[in-house]
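Hey, I'm writing a tutorial for new members on how sequence and structure tokens pair up, and I'd like a real worked example in the thread rather than a made-up one. If someone can provide the structure for the chain below, I'll link this post from the tutorial.
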Amino acid sequence: MASYIVIDHRVRGASTAPAAGGASSAQALRHPEKAHRPDNPIQRKPAWIRVKAPTHPVYHETRALMRDHRLTTVCEEAACPNIGECWSQRHATMMIMGDTCTRACAFCNVRTGLPSTLDADEPNRVGDAVAKLGLKHVVITSVDRDDLDDGGAGHFAAVIRAIRAAAPGTTIEVLTPDFLRKPGAIEVVIEARPDVFNHNLETVPRLYPTIRPGARYFASLRLLDAAKVLDPTVFTKSGLMVGLGESRAEILQVMDDLRSADVDFLTIGQYLQPTVKHAAIDRFVTPEEFAETATAARGKGFLLVSATPLTRSSYHADADFAALRDARAARLAAGLAPRG
């Protein structure tokens, strides 16, 4: 049985292949809103960020499997640094709800523009793919769809129901947009009963105007809180990038904010600049600093923390879900409250 597949649309800055000599014409078309910006040179990555080119035979089997099922992967499109490791374990990252986002975050390499209409048959195809691949855990995410009345919440729910029908033994994790100014959207998603609800804060509130200008920090925080209030049994999860100019004190404050919303699981990874037109890297955070940050987060009461330079929201999602269940069971056995 394969471990998991990630149905993914939003990707943090993770490119390892920036266009040489400035933004290419293809990148200009992909990110027209960034074309006028001055170039930010791509910094040389430290040794702890570099990864080996994929050569494992299972990597090629996974690639062939993606082609056979006519699935597009963000792993390839965003040149994710973890693709060699993940695909060698038959973990891949798929896309739903089109390939175009209505936001223009400074860190993200997903195409910006006016999305196409939703594919009504997509939920059934996703469910069929999950069943045929024999997946234990599936992660579903999407771009922001501000063009839709419900922000795509109904589509998320339809995909969850389709997977439940086609693969009832598969656990489901959703990584959703913020549903900003979409009343009732979070209720629709939670009513479909995902096992994990994930929404990434991405960065500290001070940096939102430049890094995540279309979002609102406290709206995202309220979304996470609402998910837990609506279903106290759902695991909640959020992620941060570091290396954008945030301070340690700001990161610790975000942790406190997340714990106030009873968020169970925190992921923290290094921001990697996709192209010269994206936000510049302020610094590369060392593995030792990541370890110190993880220790601080555990001390604040998160059930699970993943903080390494290459951590991404869906990295090792199947093993992390098992660890979350074990951590909650341990709390219950100790007579502690099950939430967070």
